[in-house]
Amino acid sequence: MARSDLSATIYDCLDDVETIFGDTVTALEDDGQLVHVDFAHSKSREFDLVFGADGLHSKVRSLVFGLEADFEHHVGLVVCALELEGYRPRNELVAVTQTTIGVQTMRLSLHHDATLVLFTFRDDRPIPLHDVEARQELLRTRLRGIGGEAPNILEHLPRAKSFYMDRASQIRMPTWSRGRVALLGDAAAAPSLLAGQGSALAMVGAYVLAAQLRRTQGNHQQAFAAYQRQLQPMIQDKQDAALQLDIAFAPKDRKQLYMRNATIRLMGLPFVSKLVMARSLRDPIELPSW
Ligand SMILES: Cc1cc2nc3c(=O)[nH]c(=O)nc-3n(C[C@H](O)[C@H](O)[C@H](O)COP(=O)(O)OP(=O)(O)OC[C@H]3O[C@@H](n4cnc5c(N)ncnc54)[C@H](O)[C@@H]3O)c2cc1C
C-alpha cells in the first residue's frame, strides 16, 4: 500500500482502531438506535454512528442524503495531477507554471526525484472517472497545441506513478448530518482545488466533530449540530472566495490572462503577498479544547 507521509503519520496513530481496506459500503439503514451497514465484501455490521469521510464522490452521502448532482457545484475546470519519476527539467523549490487562455500547466519538484504535474483546464463535459485510458485521451486532446512543456510531459504519461483527473467541484449541502450519520471533509463541503485548503479543512472538521462528541458525552444530535454551526459559515465563505480564484488557474480570455499575470508579479512583492494572503489564509476559528 503506497501512503504519503501525512496519511502514514495519521494512520500510525490509530493504535486501537480497526481498519478495513479494499471494501466499500453498499447500504446504510439507520433505525434510530443503530446504523446497519452492508459492505461489498465484508459481513454486515451495526454501528452507533457512521461518518462519511469518503471524499468528493462520497458513497455514504449518496446513500443517505441523495444524488451527488444535488450537491455538486462544478466550478468549470478539470484538474489533472500526475506524478513522474526522474522527469527533466527539474527546478528545486519552485513552482514552474505556463498559463494560456483556458489551460495551465504547473510543475513542482517533490522528494526522491519525483515531479508533480498539475494541468488545469476549462471544460464542462463529464469525466469518465472509471476509465484511465479515456481520461488520458481526453487530456491529450484538450492539451493539443498548447506548446511549452506539455508535449514533453504527455510523452511521460504512460509511465506516470499516479494519475488523477476529475472535474473541480464544490460540495454544498444544507445539512451535514442525518440521524446517526454525519459527513466530513470533501464529502460534506469540498471547497475545490481552487481554495487550496481542503485537506486542512477536512482535518479541522474531524477534530471539531470529535471534540463536540466528547463535550456532549456522545449526544450525537447536539454534537452534530454544534459541529456544523461552528464550521459551516466559515467553509461557505471559503467556497465563495475560491470561486473568484479560477482566473489564477485557467483565465477565460486575454484580459483575464493579463490580470492574472499582473497579480502574480505583484505577489512577488513581500508586503503585497503578506497583505493579500494573510487575510485569506487566517481563519477566525477557535478549536474546542480537548
Ligand atoms: C489536484 C488537487 C490538488 C489539491 N491541492 C490541495 C492543497 O494543496 N492543499 C489542500 O489543503 N487541499 C488540496 N486539495 C484538496 C484536498 O485534496 C481535499 O480537499 C482533501 O483531500 C479532502 O480530504 P477528505 O479526507 O475529505 O477526502 P479524500 O482525500 O478524497 O479522501 C477520501 C477517501 O475515501 C476513500 N473512498 C472514497 N470512496 C470510497 C468508498 N466508496 N468506499 C471506501 N472508501 C472510499 C478514498 O479512497 C479516499 O482515501 C487538492 C485537490 C486536488 C484534486
Explain this structure.
The strands form three sheets. Strands 6-7-8-5-9 form a five-stranded antiparallel β-sheet. Strands 1-2-3 form a three-stranded antiparallel β-sheet. The chain has a three-stranded mixed β-sheet with strand order 4-11-10. The protein is globular and about 60 Å long. α6 (about 200-215) runs antiparallel to α7. β7 and β8 form a beta hairpin. The chain has helices at about 5-10, 60-65, 130-145, 150-155, 185-190, 200-215, 220-245, 245-250, 255-265, 270-280, and strands at about 25-30, 35-40, 45, 50, 70-85, 95-100, 105-110, 115-120, 160-170, 175-180, 180-185. The protein is α+β, with helices and mostly antiparallel strands and about 290 residues long. The structure holds flavin-adenine dinucleotide (FAD). Flavin-adenine dinucleotide (FAD) binds near residues 53, 199 and 202.
Using brief descriptors, characterize the structure shown:
290 residues, alpha+beta, FAD/NAD(P)-binding domain, D-Amino Acid Oxidase, Chain A, domain 2, 3 domains, five-stranded antiparallel β-sheet, three-stranded antiparallel β-sheet, 10 helices, 11 strands, 38% helix, 23% strand, globular, binds flavin-adenine dinucleotide
Distance between the termini: 32 Å
Could you tell me the CATH topology label of the largest domain.
Answer: FAD/NAD(P)-binding domain
In CATH, what is the homologous superfamily of the largest domain?
FAD/NAD(P)-binding domain
Across the major sheet, the strand order is 6-7-8-5-9
Q: Tell me the series of helices and strands, N- to C-terminal.
A: HEEEEHEEEEHHEEEHHHHHH
> What is the C-alpha radius of gyration, as a whole number of Å?
21 Å
Bound chemical compounds: flavin-adenine dinucleotide
Tell me what portion of residues adopts beta-strand conformation. 15-25%
Please give the count of helices: 10
User: Which CATH-level-2 architecture of the largest domain?
Assistant: 3-Layer(bba) Sandwich
* Shape verdict: globular
The major β-sheet equals: 5 strands, antiparallel
How would you state the average pLDDT, rounded? 94
Helix and strand composition category: alpha+beta
- Looking at the chains present, what oligomeric state does this protein adopt? single chain
* Low-pLDDT regions: none
Percent of residues in helices: 25-40%
Query: What is the total tally of β strands?
Result: 11
Highest CATH level, the class of the largest domain: Alpha Beta
Write down the domain tally: 3
